[in-house]
Amino acid sequence: MLRKIRIALATVMMIGITWLFVDFTGTAHHWLSWMAKMQLLEAVLAVNVVVIVGLVLLTLVFGRIYCSVICPLGIMQDIIGWWSKKVKKNRYGYSKEKKWLRYPLLVVFGIAYALGLAVLVQLLAPYAAFGRIATNLLQPIYQAGNNVLAAIAEHYESYAFYQSEVWLRSGISLGIAAVTLIVLGILAWRNGRTYCNTICPVGTLLSLISRFSLLKVRFDADKCRNCSLCSKNCKAACIDFKTHTVDASRCVVCGDCIESCKFGALSYSMKPLLTEREQKPEMGRRSFLLSSALLATAAMAQQKDKIMDGGLAEIEDKIAPERQTPLTPPGSLSAQNMALRCTGCQLCISECPNQVLRPSSDLLHLMQPVMSYERGYCRPECNRCSEVCPAGAIKPIKAEDKASLQIGHAVWIKKNCIPLTDGVECGNCERHCPVGAIEMVPSDPDDEESPYVPAVNEARCIGCGACENLCPARPYSAIYVEGHEVHKEV
Description:
The chain is mainly alpha-helical.
């Protein structure tokens, strides 16, 4: 029964979170955004006290069920392990806890976060790793399937589906996602939960708490026949059938061992706390205090097909300008807040309906979202990225307040402006500016007949990028948006 309940809950969570990342319509977020907010690291970064306390209590009562029911990367490894057992049964075995690796890695993770080394934090964060896999590898497949259905529906004059453009946001992010999937796939296929119990910082942190869980997988030595089936089916390699012990710090409560035992020697049960002697009391207290301190410290740190013009002329693709300061999404408050809190899960990127967000290629902010306006602009009425971020890197903002948030300002490039280069009238930037921050003025102040060019009111501009996106100059726009380190209201 334990295994069936775990599989049912994990299936719901896996389908829901995967849908959150691949869905481009916003429907999934409307119903399932709570699944992203249940992830431990993201809750700590967002200082979501309710979720943090809830997950700690959940672990204290049930053990590390977070890793097998809530964490999508853990569930993905279980799926790969399930397929590997189809090829070869009883493929696992007991191994001792690798303290020399897992705890130093947790310390390195904490130091990297404190120093702002976002790349290392993002590579080790489990939910972010799954998010990149889903966004870069699964979403294009989902979109392609949607486009096939849209083509079929259109043939029958139905518009139940609509086309979604499939495009490469970042080759670096795609490569990292592919390598992550391959490495984790090999580890899970061969050894089950190797990543969770030796590398994953969230798993290590929860292991310090799960030692004290009330419910654990326990042996009945009188019933055990030392057949070793429990050890051979334990994906966490935490069952030593010879000594009749289960390492609760690594057990993810999957229930496979209980189902494989033919003699009923294993059970998921609770013993009185006074008779519990599975760990040394003094070590247990130190572990619990360490895990509590790590959670508290982290929470305190947070407070301080080509486009054709009329079917006649091919339009040349735009090239992104070299911005001195990258653009971060409205609601991110500042580049520092984004760098501090973002885990690079890329949920905001997969959800952006305007194709504005993409993963950064900058080493210090690798895979974190940045804005660029070659394919669209940040529409003032859209606030979806601020609604989906589970880590507090992008704070929730109301659609009516977004038009007053300045994330950057427009800069005019004289040598690219077509009234001067081609001698034709334009004014696209002025017509489409949603806040009226651009005015067309004579290029020669002393000659009213001279070509009119844009003049930007920087104090009024919010940096939405409508002018940059809709500028007809190719391949470089005659006007582009320069980012601000700290956002402000105008």
